[in-house]
Every structure is written in C-alpha cells, then in structure tokens.
Amino acid sequence: MTQRKIVHIDEDLCDGCGDCVPACAEGAIQVVGGKARLVGDLYCDGLGACLGECPQGAITIEEREAAQYDERAVERRLSAAGPREPPGQGPLECGCPGSAVRVLGPAAGSRADDPEPRGPSLLGNWPVQIKLVPIRAPYLDGADLIVAADCVPFAYRGFHERFLGGKTLLVGCPKLDDAEFYVEKLTRIFMSNDIRSVEVAIVEVPCCMGLDRIVARALQASGKSIPYLMTIVGIRGEIRNEHARARAAEMLEHGT
C-alpha cells in the first residue's frame, strides 16, 4: 500500500445515474445497489477522467493509502468483461442486463399509421420504466415523449400504432410506485433534455389520474413550457378523451 491519488465517490451525493461508468476506461467503477462504487483500488489510475461526467459532483480525487494501480490487472478485467457498451448504454442501477439502455432503430416494415396492431414493434427505446431510464439517456434529447401508465398497453390493443410511432416511451404506475420519486426524476429529465412535446396516456380508472398530476408537477418544477396532451383510454380499449394543455402550470392552477 502506498500514499497516492485515487478516486473518491461520495455516496450521499451519488444518485446512481451511471454516467461515470463508461467514462472510466479502466472499468474501475460500477453501479452497485443504486450507487457508483470503486470496485478495486488497483483498477483506478487516479487521473479522474470520470470527474466531469458526474452531474451531482459526487466524484473527487483524494490522496490516501491505496494499492498501486495495476495496468495488467485492468487488462485482465476488461478482457474478461468483453466488449464495453458505448456511453449511456451500459447496465443501470439494478444491475440487470435486460435494463441496458438501447436506442432502437425502426423495425423493417414498421408503419406508424398502420391501423391494425399486427406489424413489427414500433418501440424505439429501452429501458422504458421511469425508475430505470437514465436522466440523460441518448433517446431523450429532442424527444417527443409519451408517458404511459403501465396498464394502458393492456387496455388499448393498438398501443404501438397509436402512441409509439417516432416517440420515446416512459412507463410507470402512479398508484403502486413512488409518486414523489417520479416527480423528481421527471423534473430532472425535463431540465436536462430538450423535450419537444409530452403526451400522457392513462386508463380511465381514478388511480391512473395521478400520472397526469405527476407529469404536470414535474413540468412546472422544471420551469419549461412544453406542449402537453393527455389521452384517456377506456378499460375496454376505446379512446375516451384527448385533452391538450399548453402549460403544466395551467393544470395545477385549475386543479385539473
């Protein structure tokens, strides 16, 4: 052990976004349990390439007793891990490979105007669950956003054709999930990206209406004025109502 410079991650500031992971060419950082962690002192060269990638300022360089940086150990680790994902496309805080961010191109033969839900998938991004989507995922900037309650695709048979053509999807449940977490997460998404429009899709049941309020609060907190459309789907699959609102503030002002 020697006294040397090495990365320090403040877990109180870290929100587990994972932006630092692809920035570390040595693979010394991983998101574990929702927090970025240094997986081993010997993998960190102490140069701090990851510092500028942390939106929370949670990464600094400190000088302490640490194992010497071992370039061969890094090579072995990277070789065993296989090809690395591009920035913004690595595994998320849950550690599940199925939640890796992917920007999906349109499938061959896809048509957004096909009235029959028999064609290929029109889903253009992954993951879709609000908890798992990185704040600055590559598919968010310049996006037309569809924020759907997770029951909507089951109630509405033509979900892909009606809602997904050319849009970025976020999914959540306002009844079972943490509403305040969603407000905070969506606020940061709106503030950090150039979102062109937002459509909220909910089912007509009362608990679903909470998603409308969540998105409205997030838009208001972000200080942005973004074209907004709310669509209500009946539980038997019909479109019950489409209501455009120019500003989230108006929704809160009128208690809608």
Question: Could you provide a short overview of the structure?
Answer:
With 256 residues, the chain is an alpha/beta fold. It has 7 helices and 11 strands.
Architecture overview:
By secondary structure, the chain is α/β, with parallel strands linked by helices. The chain has 2 domains: 2-97, Alpha-Beta Plaits; 101-253, no CATH class. The protein has helices at residues 20-23, 71-81, 152-155, 159-164, 179-192, 209-222, 248-253, and strands spanning 2-9, 29-32, 35-38, 59-66, 102-103, 125-126, 144-149, 168-172, 197-203, 228-233, 239-245. The chain starts with a strand and ends with a helix. 33% of the residues are buried. Mean pLDDT is 81; it is low at 85-99.
Radius of gyration: 21 Å
| Sheet having the most strands | 5 strands, mixed
Count of discrete domains: 2
Helix/strand-derived category reads: alpha/beta
Which spans have pLDDT < 50 for at least 5 consecutive residues?
85-99
Number of helices: 7
Q: Kindly report how far apart the N and C termini lie.
A: 62 Å
Name its key features.
256 residues; 2 domains; 5-stranded mixed sheet; 23% helix
Topology, please?
Layout: E1 2-9, H1 20-23, E2 29-32, E3 35-38, E4 59-66, H2 71-81, E5 102-103, E6 125-126, E7 144-149, H3 152-155, H4 159-164, E8 168-172, H5 179-192, E9 197-203, H6 209-222, E10 228-233, E11 239-245, H7 248-253
Parallel strand pairs: 7-8, 7-9, 9-10
Antiparallel strand pairs: 1-4, 2-3, 5-6, 10-11
